[in-house]
Structures are given as C-alpha cells and as structure tokens.
Amino acid sequence: MWLHGTDKLTGIELRVNGLTARRALKADWEFEQTENALAPQATMDVLDFIADGNMQGALNTGADASGKTPTVALRATFSAAETLAGYIEYIDPVGRL
Fold first, then answer.
1. What is the DSSP string of 13-60?
2. Domain covering 2-96: architecture
C-alpha cells in the first residue's frame, strides 16, 4: 500500500473487521524498509506487509469460508493538515478482482 502526501503522515492503524492488523509510526516502517535494503522515499510512505519477502505476511482481504469479505479501514495520524492519495497492490488472479 502506497500513501502519497506531503510528508506530514506520522502513523497508521490498519483494521480488518474492527481488529487491528497493523499499527505503526512512520519511523517504524521506514526502519523496516532500511532493514530489508529498501530506501524510504520522501512524500511516499509504503506499508509493505511482505518487505522481507515472506508471502505469509501478506494482508488477506479475501472472502472467508462463509463467503464474507472483510471490512478494511485505515486510520492515519498527521502532524498537520494533509491530503493523502492511496494506492493498493493486489496479489490475486485478475479474474477474482
């Protein structure tokens, strides 16, 4: 998930069905990127669930056994007023999107 703004994003909380799936400060995910030989970009925040290459860490937003799809919500905190654009990468066959 890429979040593009003006560098005022300070933290995020990602919830799936009301439960926190990921909560982090900007410094946390930038540290994670540098640990995995990636370079944090100015005004582009990347929330990478598989930064270490382990696909088991991917955020599963697919339907469960009963066919229900989860509700996903992103809560962001900022140091000042901000306009944010989000881009999401799906890892799934195109026919299922």
1. EEEETTEEEEEEEHHHHHHHHHHTT---BTTEEE--TTTTS-GGGS--
2. Sandwich (2.60)
